[in-house]
């Protein structure tokens, strides 16, 4: 429940002050003092994933805490930047506020809101192109962050290329390419070295991401769901064996396959 007695501005200010105290060279926390942008970046990514996890689980009671952990990462980076004389939290907040206003002229400007979703997307891309030009990003693929998860970055790179016409016409063409890349992977495994094998595997993964894009599937979400399904069914195998006082290492592949099929059938029956 929202607490109406809490003042958002005051709580943000308190958080900034706490972070400054933690980073104080004389009286702060030794661990916090030792950190830099590079050492904190993995925690920033981890906290973003934990926010997503809470949302996927619909754990609404956990979400405020997870969002707070993510906000801490912003405050941590801003404090380090402030100490270095680069920028501070207010600059971060101003930057995103200005960007939102600039990217929504149909809300904050004099443009009409009466346009289709497709037109909104085209307008959004035109505005972002202006922003990229201001950053001297001239190439089609400039500005796609290197630090993104590889699968997400693949989709973004492909979307950028598709906007200028560099794309397969449809999913069937991508499926043909998957067949080709699979054959090249087998050839690399049988005839070439580990470097070539890794390269061909990467090519296959890249094309699989493109198939997801053509099928309008979120590949990250699809893989997360596949992970969850694997976890459920393997845990069912463990539970079935545990009723006999056994563990998976006490079983064999044939038995575990049968238990897997039983778990799969039970899931189907429950749908």
TrEMBL record:
Cite a single Pfam family from the UniProt record.
MazG
Matching CDD domains, A to Z? NTP-PPase_MazG_Cterm, NTP-PPase_MazG_Nterm
Under which EC number(s) is this enzyme classified?
A: 3.6.1.9
Q: Name one GO molecular function term.
A: nucleoside triphosphate diphosphatase activity
The record places domain NTP pyrophosphohydrolase MazG-like at: 35-108, 175-233
Keywords of the record, alphabetical order, are:
Hydrolase
- Gene3D superfamilies in UniProt: MazG-like
Q: What residue ranges carry the coiled-coil annotation? A: none
Note the InterPro entries from the entry: MazG-like_dom, NTP-PPase_MazG-like_C, NTP-PPase_MazG-like_N, NTP_PyrPHydrolase_MazG
Q: What is this protein called?
A: Nucleoside triphosphate pyrophosphohydrolase
Record the organism: Paracoccus maritimus
Q: Upper taxonomic classification of the species?
A: Bacteria, Pseudomonadati, Pseudomonadota, Alphaproteobacteria, Rhodobacterales
The gene name reads mazG
């Amino acid at each position: 429940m929202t607490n109406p007695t809490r003042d958002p501005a005051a709580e943000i200010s308190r958080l900034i002050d706490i972070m400054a105290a933690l980073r104080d060279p004389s009286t702060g926390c030794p661990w916090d003092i030792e950190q830099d942008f590079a050492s904190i970046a993995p925690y920033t990514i981890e906290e973003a994933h934990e926010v997503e996890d809470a949302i996927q689980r619909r754990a609404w009671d956990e979400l405020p805490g997870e969002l707070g952990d993510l906000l801490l990462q912003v405050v941590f980076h801003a404090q380090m930047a402030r100490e270095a004389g680069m920028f501070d939290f207010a600059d971060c907040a101003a930057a995103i506020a200005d960007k939102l206003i600039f990217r929504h002229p149909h809300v904050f400007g004099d443009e009409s809101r009466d346009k289709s979703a497709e037109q909104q997307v085209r307008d959004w891309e035109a505005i972002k192109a202006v922003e990229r030009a201001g950053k001297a990003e001239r190439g089609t693929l400039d500005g796609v962050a290197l630090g993104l998860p590889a699968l997400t970055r693949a989709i973004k790179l492909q979307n950028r290329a598709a906007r200028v016409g560099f794309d397969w016409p449809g999913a069937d063409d991508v499926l043909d390419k998957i067949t080709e890349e699979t054959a090249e992977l087998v050839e690399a495994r049988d005839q070439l070295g580990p470097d070539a094998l890794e390269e061909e595997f990467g090519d296959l993964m890249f094309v699989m991401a493109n198939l997801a894009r053509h099928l309008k599937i979120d590949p990250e979400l699809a893989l997360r769901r596949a992970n969850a399904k694997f976890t459920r069914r393997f845990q069912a195998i463990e539970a079935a064996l545990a009723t006999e006082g056994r563990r998976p290492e006490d079983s064999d592949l044939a038995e575990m396959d049968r238990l897997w099929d039983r778990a799969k059938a039970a899931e189907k029956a429950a749908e």
